[in-house]
Amino acid sequence: ELRHRASPWQRNLGYPLAMLGLLALTGISVLIVCFHVLELLLDDAAMPRGIQDASLGQVSFSIFGSFGAALQVVLIFYLMLSSVVGFYSSPLFTRLLPERQDTPLTKIIGNCVSLLVLSSALPVFSRTLGITRFDLLGDFGRFNWLGNFYIVFLYNMGFAGLTTLCLVKRVSWAVQAELIRAFGEDG
Q1: Domain locations in the chain as residue ranges
Q2: Which of 71, 98, 121, 186 supports an S-S bond with 103, CB 3.0-4.6 Å?
Q3: Nearest CA to 119 among 134, 136, 103?
């Protein structure tokens, strides 16, 4: 119903551009994770341990300088938003979604706790995937399991594999639906 009420500009330009942006951000994050996997295999320094004596402004946290730092910020916000959307889309937590002017206090507390857990996990998540090396003033690199190569490697491989699988499934499903619609109308 919302799609039918949208203006033609929104339907023909806004939605495709938003979809291309989401595909680009997902593709870039998968590429960064794949490069991080290669770094893990070739160099022990790629492990997401804490950075010793790296002051802000003296050391660049990105190979590409300011552009790379801005890209890291955009990717972290994208991962944050996609994890929140994925959390509320999962069948287990759809009942936790707040309702306008009809949300009980226990549901509000559950949402606060859920968002707090997701936001607390985001720095460790982005460091483990190799999206950023910045510690966010929490020194999250001190976790013992971040020094375990197998856990970090499998975490990165799982993210890259499952994200690619979801991306291919979503894109191929949309292409199949359009082909069926196009050939179904002719036949």
Answers
A1: 148-186
A2: 98
A3: 136
Token pair 């606060």 is found at 112
Task: State pTM to two decimals.
Answer: 0.73
DSSP code for 13: I
- Beta-carbon contacts of residue 69 (< 8 Å; ≥ 6 apart): 60, 61, 62
pLDDT tier for residue 167 given thresholds of 50, 70 and 90: confident
Long-range pairs for 71-77: beta carbons < 8 A, 24 or more residues apart = 71/28, 72/126, 72/131, 72/132, 72/134, 74/25, 75/25, 75/28, 75/29, 75/32, 75/126, 75/131, 76/122, 76/126, 76/131, 76/132
Angle, CA of 33, 34 and 36, to the nearest 5°: 60
Q: Please determine, for residue 53, whether its predicted confidence score (pLDDT) is greater than 70.
A: no
Identity of the amino acid at 137: L
Question: How many helices and strands in the chain, by DSSP H and E?
Answer: 6, 0
pLDDT by residue (tens digit) across 70-104? 888 899 999 999 899 989 988 888 888 888 888 89
d(CA 4, CA 114): 33
pLDDT for 131:
85
